[in-house]
Design a protein that fits this description.
227 residues, mainly alpha, 10 helices, 78% helix
């Protein structure tokens, strides 16, 4: 089998992604001892993150050079809006958080930095840059979900089981694989200079993913308080 671009990416990100699994927030999710207040903070921040993440898929459709690529971005947008965000809405209902409160959550500094980086890269770049910005999130969450699903009791935990079930599900795995295949297709025949640029985007968004786990664990908003 010929090596694909995502094989190259995996070699670069695997050590970092393995660190996700040792992060206290992620370990707490899988082992069931994560404090609910921290999960609530992640839930609200990830919801506003996913709103901008969805904008990236819509931008991908707008920049697509053919109908097939447009369709792929459209399917990914639908999966994010009506599968992943449904999970957040279900959890919000459990916690007594209204849809309005979810949507009106103020983005934390890390959330703002992450989404601003992705939108800036995607808007300035070409279609392959859009694919690079969205890859780490979907792929790494599926990676985490599949790993956590192997922990005894993780899938059945009364609070966090739905999280593990969603991100390890066949449906979400298909979404992550679609992101990977889209990236591979768009990276075909690109010169090394462009491949290196795309790799760097994916690695930076992977670092932002770690920062996002940190933000959730520490319940960070902004380091400077409003006066």
């Amino acid at each position: 089998m010929n090596s694909q671009f995502t094989d190259r990416i995996w070699k670069r990100v695997e050590p970092l992604w393995n660190n996700y699994l040792d992060h206290p927030f992620v370990k707490g999710l899988g082992e069931g001892w994560l404090e609910e207040e921290k999960f609530r903070h992640w839930l609200k921040q990830d919801y506003v993150y996913l709103i901008d993440y969805s904008r990236l898929f819509a931008l991908g459709s707008a920049k697509a050079h053919n109908l097939a690529t447009m369709n792929e971005f459209s399917k990914l947008l639908h999966g994010t809006l009506f599968m992943e965000m449904d999970l957040h809405r279900e959890y919000a209902e459990k916690f007594g958080i209204s849809r309005e409160d979810l949507e009106n959550t103020g983005a934390a500094a890390t959330t703002t930095a992450y989404t601003s980086y992705m939108l800036n890269v995607a808007q300035r770049g070409s279609i392959e840059h859009v694919a690079a910005t969205v890859l780490a999130c979907a792929w790494s969450y599926n990676f985490i979900g599949l790993k956590l699903s192997q922990i005894e009791g993780a899938l059945d935990h009364e609070l966090y089981g739905n999280w593990v079930q969603t991100y390890s599900s066949e449906e979400f795995t298909d979404l992550a694989e679609s992101c990977k295949q889209l990236m591979n297709t768009l990276a075909e025949d690109k010169p090394e200079r462009e491949l290196a640029e795309l790799e760097e985007i994916i690695y930076k968004t992977s670092m932002f993913e770690y920062m996002f786990w940190d933000m959730a664990e520490n319940m960070e908003t902004w380091p400077v308080k409003e006066s």
